[in-house]
Amino acid sequence: MYITSYCIECIDKVHHVATKKQKTANITESLDKVMKETPDEKGLVNNRTRRMRLRAAWMYYVEEMTQNDIAQQLGVGRVTVVRLLTDARERSEVKFSIQGGLQECIEVARELELRFNIDEVIVVPMSNPQADATGPISTATGMFLNEIIVPGLRIGVGWGRTLLESLGYINEVPIPDMAVVSLLGGITKVKRFNPSEFAWRFSNLFQADCYLMTAPAIVDSLATKTALIDHCGLGEVFKRAQSLDAVLLSVGDLDAQGTPYRNGFVSESVRSAMVAQGAVGEALFNYFDAKGKPVKSSIIGCVMGVPLKTIVDTPKRIIASGGLRKAEALLGAIRMVRPTVLVTDEFAARRILELDKKSS
């Protein structure tokens, strides 16, 4: 049995109670209300068992850890792990999703919402702060997108590994009058995967109209960029981007092993210069510092991407990224883009809050 999505029904239920009825109430009290719906799990011991059961299910079905590794991580025997997984299935907590959220993830999500005035934060659990957060975040992102896709939606999308992997968790269903707009050109050198394929593959799931930025993400000059926009049909893409309902972005850091730098798509000299000028991350190759202030790069005039102002002016702004390494980049992106929705992991979420407290 394989889990193909992360169900946030419990998180949504708690979030609804906290925001609609008691915006300033403690999130733990809201969780207790949900827990009362399962009389056989009242009390501290049973609550802890339920959390452990959900953690085990997440590790096994989403992170694809072995039962032995889960036992070691949770500090229990392998027989206990088998029992936890069996109980989760019997209680219908594991179907094609994991029903329920972990209390600590809900608490940190709510704190991020209040701290940065974000409409909705989805924080996915992780068992190891050094583990790759791409899979869990992609799962949650796909599940979230299933909920917001409606007829007539006009959505602009960036690209990256997190977004590309979310495709496996998005329902394939025709959506009338839907349009997908690519916010950034592509990359010309790839190995195992091409993250810039996301826009057209995403649109194919819904049989939606797709407006691609059919050019490299970075061209050789401003003159080339202007010519492509004015004379090669890309002007329509930029025009349509001005009337979007939503945008979906991932955030990059300046680590030398990041996709743009590892493959030489962005030169080491540019990366080093950005680091020296205080940049901590980029979104659509718009570099910024930890305060969310733009850091001008030598390539900014050559980026075939929708302007940052267009992104910020879009009503619904979704950021899906995580990993402890990206926490500072995410903090800067939150301050710059002011997302209405954030999907990240629990370790990055906590680190973002820590960094924000230190800076203030």
3D architecture notes:
With 360 residues, this protein is an alpha/beta fold. 46% of the residues lie in helices and 11% in strands. It has 16 helices and 10 strands. The chain has helices at residues 9-20, 27-35, 44-61, 67-74, 78-90, 103-116, 134-148, 161-166, 198-206, 222-231, 235-241, 259-262, 268-276, 308-313, 327-337, 346-359, and strands at residues 120-124, 154-157, 179-182, 209-211, 246-249, 252-253, 281-283, 286-288, 316-320, 341-345. It has a 7-stranded parallel β-sheet, with helices on both faces. Strands 6-7-8 form a 3-stranded antiparallel β-sheet, covered by helices on one side. Strand 7 and strand 8 (286-288) form a beta hairpin. Helix 1 (9-20) packs across helix 2, helix 4 (67-74) packs across helix 5 and helix 6 (103-116) packs parallel to helix 16. The model is unreliable at 1-43 (pLDDT under 50).
